[in-house]
Amino acid sequence: MKQFLLDGQPVPFEDGQSILEAARQAGHYIPSLCWHKDFPAHGSCKLCIVKAAGRHVSACATPAKEGWEVESATPEMNGERRALLQMLFVEGNHFCPSCEKSGNCELQALGYEYEMLTSRFRHFYPDRPVDASHPDVLLDFNRCIFCELCVRASRDVDGKAVFALTGRGINKHLVVNAESGRLGDTDFSKNDLAARICPVGVILHKGPGFAVPIGERTYDGQTIREQKLKEES
Amino acid sequence: MSAVPAPTRKLRVATTSLAGCFGCHMSFLDIDEHLFELVELIEFDRSPLTDIKEVGPCDIGLIEGGVCNAENVHVLRAFRRQCKTLIALGACAVNGGLPAQRNHLSLSECLREVYQFRPGLENGQIPNDPELPLPLDKVRPIHEVVRIDYFLPGCPPSGPAIWKFLTDLIAGRTPRLTGGLLHYD
């Protein structure tokens, strides 16, 4: 079987597999936010950045090549990841102390994984109103990281195409595909895959909140590295 | 926790709360009996825990809270001038925190809502005495006003996190939060 080296460890792969896919399959963790094993690579979050053949590439979108020496868990790559996380934090309103997703949030857990102590840059403080029009689900657009997982899940799995990204540059934002732009005016259901797939705190279920005690949330007792490897093994 | 070697002289530490809730100071006190070890190593300068009115030359300054009014800016700049090492303590100092959720509201509308239109107020008006510091139009993290040397996130950071951080710093190590001591909530 063909293989490449990831931080010196041999990783077997099949033709057409990405570096990320092959690594995760072999039990090696490369971080990601927008990647999902059931969907094609998206390539927006860039957290899976690795150094291959001397270049910085997205591991999710780069096919593995025989004999490559890939660097991932190096100070250089982890520093890039920390900077990317800091950019995501200042772009949105990530006030973890009042967010219901805290402790279960992939963005936050990656902040811990890469020992991000500050978001360093100037904060944008975006102002996008909450959509609470749906009976079961509310949307806080100021936490969106534009991974398009809800867009893809709703369109490709749920068959509803409830969400879309629109706008350019820093004005890019998540919208609801309804004449009114409101979630309550779509056929969105809390049982849709799209209602469960958000890695951060945009798509929240109404009803009892903060139900899981501190200490028992997803990333309280284990790191995102441990959780993701467990999910995929 | 390993014992900290005593420095040749006591380090001087100042603390303050800007747009904070004093929760980070309470969490600081949550180091409990380590406080007795700590006072062997440090002495306090200006702090809500002492009676000193102006910050003097210090080794370490701990800042809780973001910057929300003019007085906060003056205090923060004084701390930066006097402290060799300045630390952002807690979520508010690090990124503005929950008070920064007012940033998408108009400041004048906020003030009118509270001081003029709140039900039950008679002849309400926005306080205008020059003794009162004017609020800034937005709440800011302290690193957007002065240079900050270290960041200790958490709302609040736990007592053990603050103790680990301070003992690292006093012992001359780069502070590092691992094993669940790092959190933002």
TrEMBL record, chain A:
Q: Does the keyword Metal-binding apply?
A: yes
Q: Which GO terms describe its biological process?
A: ATP synthesis coupled electron transport
Q: Give cofactor(s), names only.
A: [4Fe-4S] cluster
| Protein name, entry field | 2Fe-2S iron-sulfur cluster binding domain-containing protein
What positions does the domain 2Fe-2S ferredoxin-type occupy? 1-76
Output the superkingdom of the source species.
Bacteria
Organism source for this protein?
A: Zoogloea dura
4Fe-4S His(Cys)3-ligated-type domain spans which residues?
Answer: 76-115
| Gene Ontology molecular-function annotations | 4 iron, 4 sulfur cluster binding; metal ion binding; NADH dehydrogenase (ubiquinone) activity; oxidoreductase activity
Q: What's in the keyword line of the UniProt record? A: 4Fe-4S, Iron, Iron-sulfur, Metal-binding
TrEMBL record, chain B:
| Residues spanning the signal sequence | none
Gene3D superfamilies in alphabetical order? NADH:ubiquinone oxidoreductase-like, 20kDa subunit
Q: Which cofactor does it need?
A: [3Fe-4S] cluster
Q: What sections of the sequence does the record tag as coiled-coil?
A: none
Any one Gene Ontology molecular-function term assigned to this protein's record: 3 iron, 4 sulfur cluster binding
Instruction: Fetch the Pfam families from UniProt.
Output: Oxidored_q6 (PF01058)
Q: Which residue intervals define the domain NADH:ubiquinone oxidoreductase-like 20kDa subunit in the entry?
A: 21-168
Q: Which residues cross the membrane?
A: none
The reply on keyword Cell membrane is no
- What keywords are annotated for this sequence in UniProt? 3Fe-4S, Iron, Iron-sulfur, Metal-binding, Oxidoreductase
Q: Which protein, by its recorded name, is this?
A: NADP oxidoreductase
Q: What is the lineage of its organism?
A: Bacteria, Pseudomonadati, Pseudomonadota, Betaproteobacteria, Rhodocyclales
